[in-house]
Amino acid sequence: MSIEKLDLTNSKGSKISTVLSDLGKDFIVLLCHGYPSNKQREKYINLEKVLNTVSISTLRFDFSGQGESGGEFSEFNLSQGIDDLQSVISSIIDKGFQNIGLWGNSFGGSVAIQVTPKFPEINSLCLTAPVIDWKDQKSKTKTKEEMNAWKENGFIRIKQREESKTLDIPYSFYQDSIQYNGYKAFSEIQVPILIIHGNRDEKVPISLSKKAEELNSNAKLVILEGANHHFSDKKHLDLLMGFSTEFFLRNKLY
Question: Cα dist. 165→36, 71, 203 in Å?
Answer without folding.
Answer: 11, 19, 19
